[in-house]
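User:
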Amino acid sequence: MQMVKDTSRGYSIGSYQPDSITINGQEYSGSLLLMADLLIAPWLVSKTDELTENHIQSLFSYQPQLVIIGTGSKLKFLNPRLMTLFGQNRVGLEMMTRDALCRTYTILMSEGRRILALFLKE
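Assistant: Predicted structure:
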């Protein structure tokens, strides 16, 4: 799906396919971490069941208001123990498919929210 490209606010998603995401004109096919002012590709982990407490804690160092985690074409959830870390750190968490994550990230970034998107390859 093609999306509106707005690089004035940093990293933006231009389009996405089932196996790739185009960010500011560059195509990525692996797991990545994305914020308006930060792109880390590839990211350390590619599946939800590989995430550890240390991985989750590292996300908080970026001081996001909300973390959205995309789990490919099928929705998956984190281990409940890891999910509680978000509440303890007063950071919102949403799990969604890759397509939904691309749309949600684009909307929230355009609102100026401090959002961290984690795309997992799954």
